[in-house]
Amino acid sequence: MAGNIHISVRDVIKVYESKGEKVTALKGVSMNVYKGEVVAVMGPSGSGKTTLLNLIAGVDKPTAGKIIVAGDDITRFNENQLRLYRLEKIGYVFQQFNLVPTLTALENVLLPMSLRGKRNVARARKLLESVGLGGKENRFPEELSGGEQQRLAIAIALANDPEIIIADEPTGELDISTGEKVVQLLLRESKEHGKTILMTTHDPRVARMANRVILLEDGIIKGEYEPTKISYRVEEGALGEIHAERIIADYLKDRLSGLQRELEILVERFKSGEVSIEELADRYYEIRHLMNALRSELAKLGAGVEAH
């Protein structure tokens, strides 16, 4: 995609150390994201996706390498500079929504504005209206559905009108239909306001909405693809191509396996009295609905799975 480079990650390494053991989460990652571009990062659990987002968002610092955002090397920022960077330049949409349960929807949106010293009630109300939460300003997070909570999280991320929106699995806790609506809100910010969007996802439907998809595996960028194929360098150094459908099918099968296990745990918790029959029914049918949608997508790809 032609245009100005907005984010440049250069030879970034991130090493975590715990109890004397070192784990290298990112192994020399280099990538560019262009201004106004929508980029999806895919990869299995533990591949380093969230670590990469956190580094770009200024939540964490790399062990080595540089991250240049709008011409500034944020790896050289001190803590105060990073705080201002996060407040002014970055809007972060967390997978678990990261809402303050004791604040109303309106107060949640006003919070980052207040931290920046620019509280604007009119803008907060307008943002809630723009994400379909008009009239629900005084509701607490627990009074909102999962889709509404995620839309509230997007409004919060947009509170200070950031240049960059970072979304970590923004649809991970939502059904397919609600998830697509949430992503459409993010895409609108790119199209209408020129914001740069960087998100992680396991959902191929979400990935297909992006301008570009980067495949991250074991802390290394394996390649990137546009709607129908992924390009990567094979060991001999030649440029090869494999169809994205094969990659997508693997992700879908992994997701199905995880959901099946979640169902089994849910039933076990019901049997032990940890969840009520109402909670069991609600979550059970939600999971089954998502599994059916994933199986339908696999069928379109011609990749069958065993029925459960």
Overall description:
- The protein has helices at residues 49-56, 79-88, 105-116, 121-130, 146-157, 176-193, 204-207, 244-271, 277-301; strands at 5-18, 21-34, 38-42, 64-69, 72-73, 90-93, 164-168, 196-200, 212-217, 220-226, 229-233, 239-243.
- It is α/β, with parallel strands linked by helices and 308 residues long.
- The strands form two sheets. Strands 6-7-8-3-9-10-11-12 form an eight-stranded mixed sheet, with helices on both faces. A four-stranded antiparallel sheet has the order 2-1-4-5, covered by helices on one side.
- Residues 230-245 and 304-308 have low confidence and may be disordered.
- Distance, first to last CA: 42 Å
**Average pLDDT rating:** 82
Oligomer status: single chain
Report the biggest beta sheet as strand number plus sense, adding barrel if it closes. Answer: 8 strands, mixed
Helical proportion, percent range: 40-55%
List keywords for this structure.
alpha/beta; disordered C terminus; 12 strands; 41% helix; 8-stranded mixed β-sheet; 308 residues; 4-stranded antiparallel β-sheet
